[in-house]
Amino acid sequence: MIHKFIQYLHISYLTKQRGVFVELKKEKGKFIKLHPAQILVIGFAVLIFLGTLLLMLPISTYEEGKGLHFVDALFEATSAVCVTGLAVVDTGTTFTIFGQLVMLFLVQIGGWGFMTIGIFMFIILGKKIGLKERLLLQDSLNLFTLSGVVKLVSRIIFITLIVEITGALILAIRWSFEMAWTKALYYGFFHSISAFNNAGFGLEPDNLSKWVGDPTVNLAITSLFIIGGIGFTVILDVWQKKSLRKLSLHSKVALLMTLILNVVGTIIILISEFHNAATIGNLSWNDKFWASYFQGVVPRTAGFNTIDIGHMTLSSQVFTMALMFIGASSGSTGGGIKVTTFAIIIFAFWTVLTNRSDVNIFKRRISWNLVNKSLSIGVSAIIFIFTIFFLLTYTEDMPMNKLLFETISAFGTVGLSTGITGDLSPYGKLLITLMMFIGRLGPLTMAFALMSKRHKARLRYAEEKILIG
Amino acid sequence: MIHKFIQYLHISYLTKQRGVFVELKKEKGKFIKLHPAQILVIGFAVLIFLGTLLLMLPISTYEEGKGLHFVDALFEATSAVCVTGLAVVDTGTTFTIFGQLVMLFLVQIGGWGFMTIGIFMFIILGKKIGLKERLLLQDSLNLFTLSGVVKLVSRIIFITLIVEITGALILAIRWSFEMAWTKALYYGFFHSISAFNNAGFGLEPDNLSKWVGDPTVNLAITSLFIIGGIGFTVILDVWQKKSLRKLSLHSKVALLMTLILNVVGTIIILISEFHNAATIGNLSWNDKFWASYFQGVVPRTAGFNTIDIGHMTLSSQVFTMALMFIGASSGSTGGGIKVTTFAIIIFAFWTVLTNRSDVNIFKRRISWNLVNKSLSIGVSAIIFIFTIFFLLTYTEDMPMNKLLFETISAFGTVGLSTGITGDLSPYGKLLITLMMFIGRLGPLTMAFALMSKRHKARLRYAEEKILIG
Ligand SMILES: [K+]
Ligand SMILES: [K+]
């Protein structure tokens, strides 16, 4: 089935006629036209469904005789496939090794899926992307033949494996000092895969809090999810150009925004938590720094934690929500509206305030069309988040900051939580499940919808203005 | 000073050269070019400053010998001029009749100011507004002569007075049954002016809670602020067309959205508060309905209350925040991003989701340019609100829902509060003061900036795409 799916998957340029479509050839020579967004949604829904069934198997969980409830299994599978990392049960103590490997498998497939799709999107929409990026991708990957597609996917898998194995070994060596080497190795691989794919699942009940001031764990984990979250296109660009100046505008903006947000995040957390005894108030200067760095960097969008999110100050929680909303880079394992979208919105805002005619970034002009699309993504994200959050206020009896934090964490596929995930009602769990799915696929499909050529209406109405603002 | 200002105020069409400017003639024949937005900001700042001084006078407050502190007086003056209605002191017991009249005066000047400015904006930008609306306004008001301006302003003042006096008399008659007629008359006028200008100041400590189930008070007050909040252009349009079909698109959208949001607001409040004993849970069916109607309609953006906002369910509070954010119509006494802006955003969102090419409302096409502007207004509002709210989390030790509610209420110049206004720290009060000022002037000036022709840059950079979403 999947074999046939891949075999007959042809990417064709129908952009000129009616948007971007992928033709799926059926046996009798008939074609079903599927929008890539539709393929995406169906594919991930199927994967989540399979994962749910696997996690419900008795061998997946420790409590003998009965597996996970459907709602919990659906939640965990969605969280894994969407590389979110929110958990209604404790991963380390609830799941057997089999269950944990199922989770890891779902995370890896999910992560690859999103990286690959990001690239495909980049290429399918090549005509609408700058010549520079297009040539870059066309040169390195011949995407218009099946071998080209296989080559791209293998390259993504290869780079992923290299990075994950390196990370896993570093972590395993570090952990071998305090646990048996088999356990250290397993821990290393689990956390490395979880980190690179920006999933944020851990094996300890308090995630990574044990190693709050440990430089190796801090640096290894953050490096893994920052590389995973920067996106394959940027990795490829840096790999080939080997010079910051020659990078594409996309890579420059993604790298700079990642740097700025990480530095600002660290500073804000350090300032906001400095005297908070429930988090870093009583730690040494060294541990304070590492904890702030980790918690300032992690919201986009890895979801690990080394301090108790529920006890952070409201300021930290609110700023973390903003960072989770912004998220990682396009075509990466991270979620959110994406750093590039955010950058364009901020630059556009500044351009309007200063009454300039062009949005310029790095001496390059951003079309108003792209600005419009970025604004649309931002606004639609807010509409989705508001809807789910508003419904949660009916199903749950919890304070606003905790509910909104959980919703934005699910939307941004971050996985940080103030600790309420397991206490949610079944309706609440389903709402958060839906939010993870929308949050992971929504912006992507939204981007597809925005980037594909619009159907020209046969009948156009006369234009009329409305007074706004 | 003000006389000379008005005498030499010429509105000139400089749109073709460099945006919209108002020429302010100085004595020696020199001209200072001021952007209308600049005049707006300066004018209101001066009015607020004068109001602050007046409210600090010992005769303004009951406590003898000392007037209001500067921060409190500034807060109250800003709240009055921006017709917000948030109060750090109890209006009825803190201010003397003189102080109350100062407040009422500031409210009325503020209200007139915003209605007049709304119209001016409509006309100054006439060239960019549909021919239909332009002819409508040009026919009825010759705005290009001083007499035309005077005629417009007098008409606004005339209609305002008629509506306010009618409302005041109805309320006075109703209240004369339970208080001395002089007090009833004063109460009638105070609440009528406060309602028509969408200010929301009341004279009782619990605002209008005494009359929670009273049909006369409910209908009179809500009618006053709905008429005030629909905008002068719509009133004029309805007045002259006398037929719903012939109305301009702007009027149709403003009226329909107002109706929809009022009905939805009422239903949501009724559902969310039905069993809440702290608000309407123990009231009769009749009182339940009136309270829900009042509290569902009032967030856009009158700011009165008949039930305790602080004891409403989180669902009601969150939905009220959304309504406060949306606000009233353009060119009215109400604030927020405006119903028309919101309508365009929602229609655009739907258009993108369904992959259509045009945003159509009432068989009229909305230009993507206008959509872009609406999205910009929405996003910039969110940026402003987030900034002030985030700073408040540092200065105040209060739960998120209360702080965010206060911030959005200030932004939308609504004046509803969960009851924390008086308990804010001086920094908190100053932040809310700033939010009221930005909330009142921001969207207007933003609209100016967005609508005026952009300076063409001499040097344009090459365009480059970025991957978003
Ligand atoms: K995550
Ligand atoms: K108000």
TrEMBL record, chains A, B:
Keywords: Cell membrane, Ion transport, Membrane, Potassium, Potassium transport, Transmembrane, Transmembrane helix, Transport. It is found in: Cell membrane. It is a multi-pass membrane protein. One of its GO terms (cellular component) is plasma membrane. GO terms for molecular function: potassium:chloride symporter activity. It holds the Pfam family TrkH. The chain crosses the membrane at residues 39-62, 68-89, 101-125, 152-172, 184-203, 215-239, 251-271, 322-353, 374-394, 430-451. InterPro entries: Cat_transpt, TrkH. Signal peptide: none annotated. It comes from the Bacteria. Its main location: membrane. This is TrkH family potassium uptake protein. The lineage of its organism: Bacteria, Bacillati, Bacillota, Bacilli, Bacillales.
